[in-house]
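User: Please run a holo structure prediction.
Assistant: Happy to. Please share the sequence and the ligand.
User: Here you go; the ligand is zinc ion.
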Amino acid sequence: MSGLSVMKRSRLLRGNCLSDLFKRGRGRQFGDGTCARILGIETSCDDTGIAIVDGAGRILGDALHSQQSTHLQYGGIIPPVARELHRKNITDVCERALREANLRVRDVDAIAVTVMPGLALSLMIGRSFGQYLSKIGNKPLIPIHHMEAHALTARMSEKVDFPFLVLLISGGHCMLALVKDVADFYLLGTSVDDAPGEALDKTARRLKMRNLPEYADKNGGAAIELAASKATDPFQFEFPAPMTHYRDCSFSFSGLKNSADRMILKMERGHDVLGDGVIPDLENFCAAFQLCVAKHIGHRTKRAMMFLDRRELLPQDKKTLVVSGGVACNNFIARSLQTICSEMGYRFVRPPPKFCMDNGIMIAWNGIERWNADVGVLRDPIEIEKLEFQSRAPLGIDWTDVVRGDDIPCRTIRSKELYP
Ligand code: KG4
Ligand code: ZN
């Protein structure tokens, strides 16, 4: 980070925090080699997040700068704008996290940084900052896959043993995977077009929900969830269920979003809704849209469970579904998945909503997991300097054709199952 002032650089390195840390009763295991401390950096999309987490899953310091309000004004993420905001804020975010932890860069064991997948311009800032910290602190660097980090976050606060099924639902991704180990993932299904968060965000924008004060500061998914909670008749509108004839675990949300667009236009015309106006029955519309998203996600997840059961890939007495990613914050979708878990004999695990969203904590924790397993820890300064980022990166080994080949029948989820 050539742009860092000498003052900021020395602030990152200085500090008298270690004694304070001991006074607070944390870090007791420091120095005995059993409890590593990793600083994690996340900049793959529109959040600048940095945190320091230790091997016991304690969050020693955590800071986040969200770009949401800026992107809401532009109506979407503009990559060069995201890059500039990451560049502008990353040093302060890092200082805040270190200050809260009462630590300096030299006190952590390694730096973990998201290098894939994500927006190239955003990833670049985090990657370069990670390289910079690794250099000034003479620390190993751990490159992190953003989706692997989402998948493993649950293990920070709850006992979740390998192997388990993970469902990752966010603004950029939608995937089901079998997680056999820290760096051993098998992709069972992914979206053929949009991610669910993208469909929710675009539909909320099309509904002009920002014009209503109660939704103005919310992301699309949270706005639709809130509106849906006020619905009087969630069955007033009906959306076609996507991909019912495909016996696999693929997802599709663009058809759903297009149906929503068409229905909104029709209602706007029918009710003379002009300019910034919002359709009548907004709450019922949101509830029906959310219901269709939940049914689709639930249906594909249920087939993934059937696939794993059939092939005995999870221990029968210990089957777990972990769900994470921003859309996992949605309580209606979470409850729907819980219903399916009960039916299929799975334990349902969702990290606290704050950890489902993008943050530095999940990256630091993935760093801890990799550090403990000693996988993918870069120690050679030349290798660290050459580290590339990748805007596209598959998650693990692709088993989507294996799942499709099994041709497992699975009936769709009925609305009444989710709205009993
Ligand atoms: O994981 P995340 O923070 O960033 C990505 O990697 O995409 O997820 C952001 C997405 C956004 O699309 C947002 O609309 C969605 O998560 N989201 C929600 C809720 N809160 C955030 N979707 C549905 N219900 C929510 N309560
Ligand atoms: Zn994410």
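Confidence is low (pLDDT under 50) at residues 1-7, 13-33.
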